[in-house]
Amino acid sequence: MSDLFSPFRMGDIELKNRIVMAPLTRNRATPGPDAPNDLNVEYYRQRASAGLIVSEASQISQQGQGYLWTPGIFTDAQVEGWRKITDAVHEAGGKIVIQLWHVGRVSHTSLQPNGGAPVAPSAITARTKTFVEGGFADTSAPRALDLSEIPGIIADYRRAAENAKRAGFDGVELHGANGYLIDQFLKDGSNHRADAYGGSVENRMRFALEAVDAVLSVWPAARVGIRLSPVSPANDAVDSAPEKVFFPLVRELDKRGLAFIHVIEGSTGMARDNAPFDYAGLRKSFRGAYMANNGYTRELAIDAVAADQADLVSFGKAFIANPDLVERLRRDAPLNPLDKKTLYGGDARGYTDYPALATAAG
Prior knowledge:
Layout: E1 8-10, E2 13-15, E3 19-21, H1 38-46, E4 52-59, H2 76-91, E5 96-101, E6 119-120, E7 129-132, E8 135-138, E9 143-144, H3 150-166, E10 171-176, H4 181-186, H5 201-216, E11 224-228, H6 242-255, E12 260-264, H7 279-284, E13 289-293, H8 298-306, E14 312-315, H9 317-321, H10 325-331, H11 357-361
Parallel strand pairs: 3-4, 3-14, 4-5, 5-10, 6-9, 10-11, 11-12, 12-13, 13-14
Antiparallel strand pairs: 1-2, 7-8
Helix pairs in contact: 1-2, 3-5, 5-6
């Protein structure tokens, strides 16, 4: 049996296999409080055979929200909703970490406090869409964060980390990928600041590291990771020299003893070879676990783990359509097709009604 299906210790978290459910925005939190609900509980329970579940991205504040009906982790109601999910996953023998999210400029005024502009490192509108009442819409023009506002956002990361502990998670992943706020600060295409948070690589890393350190003030490093997307152009965040940014960043993360880095290789949900990048070198720069993501098939995942190119492999869309993905991969069984029409918003259809192998066979 491939090492992909063998147990693995990621920091302080014991995993029963090396297959990870990637964070997946599904827009099914309860409208209004944006709290997880019983339908969400069933969805995560069904997928608890994963070695690890990384929860859907969860905003650390209302300002951090960029899409309609996504869950937060900043109110008591949200914490209580997530507690039901972590309890269900644990009862089913699984492990789950929460992904902490601030979208930055990838938002819309209709989602922001008092209808205000989204915030960003610089006042540069993202050429991308967000999900609001009525469907997908262009993002709103952002305003540049004032230097005095940044400590407040870092404090929001700390409070969210505290709430994640109250909610019973096994650990935390910071969302530093896909063109959201941490990624916006890292990349020179979206960060044109001339103060301590812009310009040099050291300055552009500052926000990411302050957010990580805020989480580390609450959680042991052996239960903390971060998701990165060095060359993905997702949500219009690009950098002119990504290896000059992400290698120093990962070395700093390594100094802090993080449990894992979760790396989107290539363009998110698209080509793995959209731009050159030395992922093997990045892996060697980090002593914790390397979690690989993006376009992995069963064969690619088995080979990556066997060749020590990755410790863990995360799957996204395959986990949406296959609650028992681990067993299907183990048996090399056919996968359910994905219903793209039900990805964002809706009810149980395309969410908790995908059949497991036994059901499909029956």
